[in-house]
Amino acid sequence: MSAPKKGALTDTEKELLQVIAAGNVQEASRLLGCKDVRVNCLDEYGMTPLMHAAYKGKADMCKLLLQHGADVNCNEHEHGYTALMFAGLSGKTEITRMMLDAGAETDVVNSVGRTAAQMAAFVGQHDCVTVINNFFSRKRLDYYTKPQGLEKEPKLPPKLAGPLHKIIMTTNLNPVKMVMLIKENPLLLDVEALEKCHKVMELICEKCVKQQDMNEVLAMKMHYISCVLQKCGSFLKDQQDKLEGLIKSLLKGRDSDGFPVFQEKFLRECIRKFPYCDATLLQQLVRSIAPVEMGNDPTALSVLTQAITGQVGFMDAEFCTTCGEKGAEKRCSICKMVIYCNQDCQKLHWFTHKKVCKKLQEQRQKHESDSAKRLEKQAKELEEKKASEETSNAMEDLSIEQREVTSMSDTLIKTESAEPIPINAD
Ligand SMILES: [Zn+2]
Ligand SMILES: [Zn+2]
C-alpha cells in the first residue's frame, strides 16, 4: 500500500487533528473508529496524527494512536522528521520511551542530517537524549535466548533476559547501584548466571562496534555492564556474602578525604579494558581521565556517565552519595555535607563516612562562622557609613543594602535549623 497523499485529509481526519491538539482522548478514540479516518493520514506538511500528538507532548494520545496501529516510523514529513524526533523535541521522556518501545528507528536522520538524539540535544532536552542513547530493545536481547545455528542451548537462559534487560536500561551507571540491582534479583545471584550474562554483553558490545552504523556509546555501555557482571561473578565465587563485600569495597573511602579509591580504579580499569582500541570514544575517555590525579575532578564515573548518557554535572547535590540515584533528599544530620536516597543508603555508607564525617562537620562550621563574621563586619561597616552619610539619597541606598544583609542572615539561620535525620551507626 502506498503512503497516503499529503494534505488530502477527510473532514473527520481534520477534526481528529484538532481533537489531538486539544488533548481530548475520548473524542479521538471515537473518531478513530470512523470509516473515513486513516490513523496514518498526512497533513499538508506530511505529519501524521502520531507526530502531532508526540510534538504536543500528549502521552495518552500517543498511546491511543499506537494502539490503533499508528506507524511509528512513518517518514513522509517535509523535513524528514519522525515521530521519535517530535517526541525528543517535546522533552517528554515517557513519550520518547513509548516511541522506542513501539520500534522507532534511532538512526534515521532528518533533511539536515540530524538523528532524533541530536535534535533533542540541540534544543536542550537532555533527558530525552539519555533515553534514546541508552535504549536497547528487549527484542535485541531476546535474540540470545534462542539457540542459533548449531547451538543446542541458547547463550542466555530466557529467564535471565528480564533481569539483564533491566540492568541494560538503567541510566545510573554508578557501580554501587548496578551491584544493588544484581543483588536484588535471586536469578542473577549465581556465578554461572553472571558468567552467561557477562558473555552475552561482550557479544552485544562486539555487535555494536561491528555493525554498519557503529554505535560506540552503546558498545561502551555494554562493555561496562559486562565488566560489572564479571566483577560480581568473581566476588560471588570467592566470598559467599552475596556481594556485600563488593559494595563495601566500592564505597570505602581513603582516610584523608573519604575518596572511594577502589571504585575509581575499577572504573578506570573498565574503560581501559574496552576491547576496540581504535574507537574514538575510548580515546576521548582515556584522554580525559589519564591526567587526573586520584581524588580530583573529573572522576572516571562522571566522564563515563557524560559520554554514555549525556548527563552533565550529575555529581551535584541532589544525587545519592552511595548509589548515585537522582532526587536524594536525606542529609547526614551531623556534617550535613552528604546526601542519600534513604536510610538504607546512609547505613551502607556509614562504615566509611564516619571516618570523615566529623572533619566535614568542622569544615562546614568553619565556613558558616566565617560567613557569619563577614556579615557582622558588613553590618558594622554599614552602621558606620550610615552615621557619616548625610544626603538622603545615600540613606536610601543604605537601607536597601541593609535589607539584603538581614535577609542573608535569615537564610543562614534557616540552614542551621534544618531538621536532622537520625543516624544508625553500625
Ligand atoms: Zn541511594
Ligand atoms: Zn556526616
Task: Flag low-confidence runs.
Answer: 405-421
Q: What is the succession of H and E elements?
A: HHHHHHHHHHHHHHHHHEEHH
Structural Rg: 28 Å
Structural class: mainly alpha
Average pLDDT metric: 88
How large is the share of residues in beta strands?
under 5%
Q: Characterize the main sheet.
A: 2 strands, antiparallel
Number of domains as seen in the coordinates = 3
How would you sum up the global shape? globular
Order the strands across the largest sheet as they lie in space: 1-2
The helix count comes to 19
Instruction: State the distance separating the first and last CA atoms.
Output: 68 Å
Strand tally, please? 2
Q: Helical percent range?
A: 55-70%
| Bound compounds | zinc ion
Give the tags.
Serine Threonine Protein Phosphatase 5, Tetratricopeptide repeat, two-stranded antiparallel ribbon, 1% strand, mainly alpha, binds zinc ion, 58% helix, 426 residues
